[in-house]
Amino acid sequence: MFYEPLILTTFLPDSSLSHHMNDQSILLRQLPKMDLAVNDLDSEAISELPPAIVKSAVRETIESFRQRILSGTITSLPIDKDEWKAIFTAAIHKKNSPNLQRVLNGTGVVIHTNLGRSLLGAHTMHALHNAGAHYTNLEFDLDTGKRGSRYSLVEQIICDLTGAEAALVVNNNAAAVLLALNSLTCGSETIVSRGQLVEIGGSFRIPDIMTRSGAILVEVGATNRTHLFDYENAITEETALLLKVHTSNFRVIGFTSEVSAIDLVTLGKKHGLPVMEDLGSGSLVDLSPWGLPKEPTVQEIVKAGVDVVTFSGDKLLGGPQAGLIVGRKEIITRIKKNPMNRALRIDKFTLAALESVLRDYYDLEKAREKIPTLALLTLSPELIKKKGQNILRRLGGAQKVKDWIQLLPTISKVGGGAMPEHGLPSWSLVLQPGPDGASELERWFRTLPVPLIGRIEEEKMVLDLRTILDDDFSILVATLNNYLQREMAS
Ligand SMILES: *Cc1c(COP(=O)(O)O)cnc(C)c1O
Predict the structure, then answer these.
(1) Residue 174 CA: which ligand 1 atom is closest?
(2) Which of 165, 275, 411, 416 could cross-link to 329 by cystine, CB 3.0-4.6 Å?
């Protein structure tokens, strides 16, 4: 026996504090003992599992009960052995399952940083498999039989696509900014507009990165307006770089003014200073024909004469996590020689996926179909609505279903800090929660074997179908059937 029946004594001294403490010590004594608990588990349910997992899961479960007793968040324990067994078994299975799991994205946010940003197409996944399952020429020059450079696998492609003279790829765009600034301005001054000292999230702030890179930050202009003369007046003997940061995740509206890349380049040339632009999302295609805002493409910024441009691999580009640095050959060479480069180097999986996605861009029309991020961003509301009708049809479309699930027009987001105030017209399944409310429904969806993540609007659960993939359909249908049964029974 590893449990004792719970008896909360009622004849303790009359002070509520000591009453509480005594309840706690009784509960603590009633916690199962680890070894006994493990021995009592159904052996066939766990016999195939690593003993280390079984033991840790049981220990962690007991410990979590202990903490909850001590903090007063629980005042009773599971009543019998079967209840404990079920709790332990669930904990063991959870610990034995991968922590990184598939979820259904019903948020409508296409580049959702918390849900893994860009998805990769099947052909790109094939390239990843190839890089992982086989030896490759990662750093081996097949022409000469000598050591090669991993970067040469993608550099020419990036140059072809962006028009830049040279390119380098590092771990992510934050690393790209850090490395470029460190290489070009360490110990000397970088001039940047006050309106562009942005925080991207996840504690990435341009001023902090600049300080860590060794650059000395010289802020110019006002929050809403910066003029060319602000930069010019700040240039001294100590100036090493003019920096422009794309304010991707917010928009200053009203009485505003920013200096264009072209004007900054002209100023830089006059004073013999390089110009860098951190583009953030950095797209290679103009998505405005599909109703998205016109953002400068990487090619346009390079063409404007900006000496070094940095952008993300997994935002609008739709590839793996990476930071791309493109620009003038002489500058990229300086960055490549920085010893920090080695610490920020990308691995073979990033290279494999990046090469595959970049190759898609040689044919821009096909790129929009082959790169999931672009396909989802440019999906027409009509097609999204059709997805919804298909799902409803597969639910049986009974009158009862219509009381619980409605297909309604909604607005989805680009995400990834790109195009912040731009909404994409979409369609969502809007679910009526049961008596426990929308946040309980939202929580329940998160606990399913394939969790479903949506958003709550006006006390209803909204599942935006833009980000539900064809592959997700049967899981979504099963999940919705589950929900209907659960709510109809309540
Ligand atoms: C997103 C972003 C970054 C950081 O890029 P990661 O690839 O997430 O490291 C840097 N600068 C800007 C302007 C961004 O939008």
Answers:
(1) 9
(2) 165
Does the beta carbon of 118 lie inside 6 Å of ligand 1?
no
Whether domain 104-111+376-489 has CATH 3.90.1150.180: the reply is yes
Which helix (H) or strand (E) segment is 361 a member of?
Answer: none
What length is written for the chain?
A: 490
In three-state secondary structure terms, 450 is coil
pLDDT band at 197 (very low <50, low <70, confident <90, very high): confident
pTM given for the model: 0.89
Could you tell me if the CB of 341 is within 6 A of ligand 1?
Answer: no
Q: What residue's CA is closest to ligand 1, atom 2?
A: 280
DSSP alpha helix (H) spans, 347-437: 348-360, 364-370, 372-377, 381-394, 399-404
The answer for 42, left when phi > 0, alpha when psi is -120 to 50, beta otherwise, is: beta
Report the alpha-carbon distance of residue 175 to residue 209 in Å, rounded: 9
Domain coordinates in residue numbering, the chain: 17-96, 104-111+376-489, 122-370
Q: Which tens digit of pLDDT belongs to each residue from 331-384? A: 999 999 999 999 999 999 999 999 999 999 999 989 999 999 999 999 999 999
**Of 211, 201, 210, 203, residue with least CA distance to 243:** 210
Q: How far is the CA of 82 from the centre of ligand 1 (A)?
A: 50
Name the least confident of 3-17, 164-178, 220-234.
3-17
- Which residue's structure tokens are 């766990």? 46
Task: Give the model's confidence band at 89: pLDDT under 50 very low, under 70 low, under 90 confident, else very high.
Answer: very high
Mean pLDDT (the chain, rounded)? 90
Q: How far is CA 296 from CA 78, 197, 299, in A?
A: 60, 19, 8
Q: How far does the centroid of ligand 1 lie from the alpha carbon of residue 385, in Å?
A: 32
- Mean pLDDT of the region 112-137: 97
Ramachandran sector of residue 103 (left: φ over 0; alpha: ψ -120 to 50; beta: rest): beta
- The Cα–Cα gap between 328 and 240 comes to 16
The amino acid at residue 408 is L
Of the pLDDT bands very low, low, confident and very high (cuts 50, 70, 90), residue 287 is: very high
